[in-house]
What we know:
Radius of gyration: 26 Å
Strand order of the largest sheet: 1-2-5-8-11-14-17-20-23-26-29-32-35
Largest sheet: 13 strands, parallel
Helix content: 10-25%
Strand content: 25-35%
Structural class: alpha/beta
Number of strands: 40
Amino acid sequence: xxxxxxxxxxxxxxxxxxxxxxxxxxxxxxxxxxxxxxxxxxxxxxxxxxxxxxxxxxxxxxxxxxxxxxxxxxxxxxxxxxxxxxxxxxxxxxxxxxxxxxxxxxxxxxxxxxxxxxxxxxxxxxxxxxxxxxxxxxxxxxxxxxxxxxxxxxxxxxxxxxxxxxxxxxxxxxxxxxxxxxxxxxxxxxxxxxxxxxxxxxxxxxxxxxxxxxxxxxxxxxxxxxxxxxxxxxxxxxxxxxxxxxxxxxxxxxxxxxxxxxxxxxxxxxxxxxxxxxxxxxxxxxxxxxxxxxxxxxxxxxxxxxxxxxxxxxxxxxxxxxxxxxxxxxxxxxxxxxxxxxxxxxxxxxxxxxxxxxxxxxxxxxxxxxxxxxxxxxxxxxxxxxxxxxxxxxxxxxxxxxxxxxxxxxxxxxxxxxxxxxxxxxxxxxxxxxxxxxxxxx
Length: 442
């Protein structure tokens, strides 16, 4: 009897299986179905229009085909999730309001609406695609988000906005157009993995975000790929930044980050920009075909750079300062495509030290008008004397153990095709405008 009572008690503790209810298209039908549903019910949509907005105030699953369209008709947020354990899957969400100050969105997950699952939705023509706004343990996966295309990019919303929502998983989403692909603000302990982001201001934008992983994402043809700002303990792993116009990766007041396995290629300006960022481990990345491989400034200290490859950048390193910086670690430096190196003992490490900049570079950065003199015999004499007598250099970057071979990071053929398309549009000047002051402020 005790065993039977124990089994009955365990069964009673399990959540009851909800009823399945079909919901026909039409004005008010979805809202009425939600109001009449019991916690745990499954509401199944069919093809057709479901005018909104609607709010979900109890644990429910709402599922349907792409042809089932929940339309907010330009009024606020289309679907507001205000209960835990809500699942939305498969259908289309469109037509949010346009008030950025109210964070109008296709789907909004409120504080207390924990463990929400947003999977496989199609979100189009919303101010923000999905706003995870306080709910914990959200799972936002495999959604297709197409943002608005206002003439001014900064007037648009974000594909996915995460605010104060710990333990959020963003995985497998495809985001195009809008302002930022993923904007993470005042959040922590999350994973943003395997997302593809195109034609945006920033692909991933961190502000005050802690202990969060950004891995295996693809940024193509955005103004800036991965902007890690005012954040701590980020893990930036195995991402691709292809043809991002301003910077591929930026660490701005970012500390204790692990940046590894990333490819930044084809940026118009800078592959990597480090500004007042400290104690970051930057290793085994490939920075290729940018205007500047690495721009390092504002007193950034105690960073470790090792195993990276700097290939074909017009200027490998821009560093203005009087301190000496050693960019190798435990006998392993970086690969530099412009270093005419020898390796007589065959250990994979070049026999000569690499210095990317000299005194003339410092003068040109601080006094651009001096570029008129770069070909003069006097300037060439100064360059030769400094290469022959390194003690005359006023500080700067040194790699004492440069590598002989670069690491390779493959790009899938379909992604390479998107990269080529983006490069063509940048060359033709057919991308959206963005206020240069906004990028400068970041």
